[in-house]
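Q: What does the assembled structure look like for these inputs?
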Amino acid sequence: MYGLFLRHFYLITRSFPRILDLIYWPSIQITLWGFISNFFASHTTYYNNAVGVILTCAILYDFLFRTSIGFNMLFLEEIWSRNFTNLFIAPMKISEILTSLIFTALVRALIGLIPAVLLTSPLFGISILELGIYLFFLFLSLYIFGITLGILVSAGLLRFGPSFENIAWSTMFLLAPFGCIYYPIEILPELFQKIAYILPLVYIFEEARNILINNTVDISNLIQAFMLNIIYIIISITLFFYSFNKARDKGTLINIGE
Amino acid sequence: MKTLVEVQNLKKNYGEKQAVKSISFKINENEILGLLGPNGSGKTTTIGMMLGLLKPTSGKILIEGDKIEEDRIKILQKINFISPYIELPKKLTVKQNLIVFGKLYKIKNLNDRIDYLTSKLRLNDILNRITGELSSGQKNRASLAKSLINNPKVLLLDEPTASLDPEIGDFIRSFLEDYKKEKKISILLASHNMNEVTRLCKSILMMKDGIIVDSGSPAKLIEKHGRKNLEEVFLKLSRSPNEHN
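A:
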């Protein structure tokens, strides 16, 4: 029994991503649900006139989640199937690999999104299409941010190897409390608000609620989200190229598939 | 004879550790060069650098005169690799895998190429089967087909017959001999199977601790070291103190 304990103890203590994984999951869950509970306890009438706001935000968040995880899954599939080396010795530029993964992640996310959107109407009498043309911009913004997170995690996989996989599954949960998906930003403590404002998520979900609850459109939210998205996607692509070069230097590309 | 591969003063350091210490060699067309050495001698690192998966600390790798560090994509179009540590996607059929890799390598007349490899590697019975459900020997033939999908001029083989039964191992060796003759390709063969190396390679590099400690034909090495066979030469060189350090 002690031997089996040691086997896992050695594994955990030799992997920083695994230690991080153990620590932040409970913290994130408590933080997220703490804010949600806090909000509903103090703002019981907030959603009274906008049936479906929560469901709409859930669909938007799920699209973001699917896009990000979808991108990571494509990368992880190659590692799990030990096909990683075959991919990187094919005559493809890194930009071509990224482009194909970005497109495939969109197809995967849409396959999940379309049935969810279609189901909300007959089941709950709610149509996400009420967001009108702005729905497209909200989805586009979420798609770009989802891809950004996917590229960042893939860069981590390249740099640190498969032990970074746990991070891949939990990036979205890590960001969820700051994304203000189900509650307005005011519910967050001041320090968290500052962090939230540097993420595009808060502008996207604030705008979705604004359209559904107030029936008004604040274009500045959409513009702010796009500007932040552009900054983050440039950073993520740069980091991916940096990680690829580091992986070539340290030999991770050879070992990762084995 | 035309030189297809030229490795010049190739070095690779991982921090303080020197994995490959300034090695040089050439591979001519229509030649199989054996790369022997104990585990950790630098064989995989050398192959990794030739494939562009590893950045050399210094030195050059030229494939038909093109440098891997400068013309990575161009070189990867005419090179390929097979190793028992790398597999094809398991959920796809053999044919789907060949189509995917054919597209990645931008192969023209892909169906003709797949038909040719199917016939040469006896893939007919397994072409539409799920790759993950195949036996080791069948997977090996499917991987070999993938490694030849781009009609490579240079083929890097890392333990191509490891874990195969003698009959399939013999089939693969015969296939490689015939294919090399037919296509005049260069092959670098890293193997621990001394009979295989003796049969296939006219020339051998013996690596140890990141350097080439000896080279020559199997017969010459056996004679030079006064041993009965290549395995004994391998053991002698592996166990002797490294004079080149």
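The interface with chain B takes residues 77-78, 81-93, 245, 248-251, 253-254, 257-258 of chain A (CB under 8 Å).
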